[in-house]
Known about the structure:
Elements: H1 2-5, H2 16-24, H3 30-34, E1 40-43, E2 47-48, H4 53-58, E3 63-77, E4 83-90, E5 95-101, E6 115-125, E7 128-138, E8 149-152, H5 161-174, H6 184-189, H7 195-203, H8 208-238, H9 252-260, H10 268-281, E9 288-293, H11 299-312, E10 316-321, H12 324-339, E11 348-351, H13 359-364, E12 367-371, E13 384-390, H14 397-405, E14 411-416, H15 422-428, E15 433-437, E16 448-452, H16 457-471, E17 474-478, H17 490-507, E18 513-516, H18 522-533, E19 539-542, E20 555-560, H19 568-575, E21 586-590, H20 596-607, H21 611-622, H22 630-633, H23 646-661, H24 666-669, H25 671-687
Parallel strand pairs: 2-3, 9-14, 9-15, 10-12, 10-13, 11-12, 13-14, 16-21, 17-19, 17-20, 18-19, 20-21
Antiparallel strand pairs: 1-8, 3-4, 3-6, 4-5, 6-7
The site of adenosine-5'-diphosphate has 19 residues, from α11.
Amino acid sequence: MELLQTPIETLPKTAPLTKNRLKSISINTYFDLISYFPTRYEDYSCIITIKEMGAAYDSGIEHVTIKATVSDFENIYTRRHMQIQKVKLVDDKASTTVTWFNQPFLRQIFRTGQIVSVAGSLERLDFGTVIRAQHYEIDSPEPVHTARLVPIYPAKRGLSSRLLREKIYYLLQRVNQFQEMLSDKILKANNLVESNIAYRQIHFPDNLALAEQARDRLAFDELFTIQLSSALVRESWQHEKVGTVLNRNKFEKTLNDFEINLPFKLTKAQKRSIDEILKDISTPKPMNRLLQGDVGSGKTIVAAFAAYLTHLNGFKVLLMAPTEILASQHFQSLISIFSSNGASSPSIAIITSNKKSSNEEIASANIIVGTHAIIAGKRKFDNVGLVIVDEQQKFGVVQRAKLKEQGTNPHLLSMTATPIPRTVMLTLYGELDISILDEMPLGRLPVKTHLVTQEKRQAAYTWINTQAQANQAQIFIVVPLIDESTHESMKNIKAANNEYEKLSKEIFPNLKIGLLHGRMKSAEKDKVLLDFKEGKLDILVSTPVVEVGIDIPRATIIVIEGAERFGMAQLHQLRGRVGRDNKQSYCLLFTEQQAIPITQRLNFFSKVNDGFVLAQYDLEHRGGGSLHGIEQHGISELALSTLTDVELINKTQKLAQEFVRNKYSLDSEYPILKERIDKYHNIQIARD
Ligand code: ADP
Ligand code: MG
């Protein structure tokens, strides 16, 4: 096992650049590299002679390997700065020429007299059948790139599939035995091959059936590790106790009055969720619940009920949001929600880096709103009964430990607008209880969504202008995500600035336009948002920061520039900025790209308004990694992407529960599994 823990630094015959690239995709040990799995295989196991190529083509064989001797290598320069490599190969009966493009270094391999192995697909040209080469290597009794099922790895950060294949092959040769993390009994019961077979066969399978068995086995491990980890966390929560149990019955009437005084009627889903949450927080077991509801479904008021009951019982509430804007908005919302309520209303304070209530206000506040950073500092919060976290599905293990250190073991409520498909929920969030707002407040109209190509852009601007002038429409214009990072980069801000200039000078000189981005001072942000909210601005140009949570009910149009760069979930979040009132709203997807899969995806998005359906679409078409929120979970992508495999999810979940129920000792009975679980925990903590 030691060998597998070896740092990737020490990988022999590997350039420092390659090592850095490996590390940049989180491959830090030999085991990490062996856990980088191929996405598919190309079958070049059919070995033929050059003379047989024609007949093979006629009988429908496509992929083949030929073994032959190099008789000539020619490097030809073309007029367009291309280089063509022509290699003449001969075997005992015939010869053929194989062509490559722009790979002059191949001269090193294809030396005259060298026996080589070339894999590719057969093609029929006027003068006969040729092989279009895909892979090559110097002939050897143990081929890696040809004459077999050749694994194809996802190429990333300049790491080619060929290089990865070579390194992984080398490592597999050196590992004597992969230790087994599950018992024989479990393997049998679940029809799984041993891990020693699985790790080898998933990379270099003897046949496709074995490759599939290997994949099944390792997918099982992957999901089982996560499920068991969640189950263990859940189990440990069961044994914890909150400081004091909140009394709900005593305040039933107060809560009722609060409800009656709201300016709207709660939806059924809101009532149900409120009930689930209040039930939870009036027991001694700490709540760990996720409130999931599409944008605009009204999560804030649900949270307010939980906060209110906590306050009525004499405990404080912390509400944390991912950004200052959101914290500030929650602060305003809570003030307005409780403003029409009676004397028992909580007092509310805010703490962000730029905006802060006075120390006395904070000390005496019943609800304290801030960014996630508020508990990271030195400040201590006594008597906290409930922590509410917005838009961060998993409340960090670290933050929780921090609060416990301070002597409070509060209830936790996380809220998210990210629709998480059920199978994903079961797998990745197994330790959470879930409440779902699957119903919109009455009277909301679905947002009309249109794809706007380059040619129609002008017409769209004209339409927007009319809407703004004739109908007082308010418009969000979102500039594209430039860097893939979730944080705002300087480039993004620059793009927003440019767009702002262009729109205000050239396109809508007659309209009032504001600009919003993450690096603005808090006071400026608030002012611009307030101006927009009060109708003093027609257009708000913004970086994708508007994505999460901003509530401007009067805005009815959102333009998303470079729509193809966003995942479905993000687009859906952005679209959710409009349609928050009972007026018809519109979402215009501006795109310069016309590639079919992109148009298809955006068209699908235009037709569907249900976040869960969109998330499922992304899950199926782009894999788990595309799901917003999964990166927060600590695994950017499940290597074997099995989040749609309900059967496997159920099987692994059952086994995880069995482990917990029967109190299997990981330390003594399942040390390898224990290592895996610890590693998984560490990744999660590191991400928080
Ligand atoms: P989100 O779930 O996206 O956080 P919010 O809590 O911000 O949604 O609510 C969106 C808007 O809907 C707010 O303006 C809120 O006052 C309003 N709202 C919430 N619940 C209802 C309801 N039951 N009926 C009508 N409007 C509601
Ligand atoms: Mg919200």
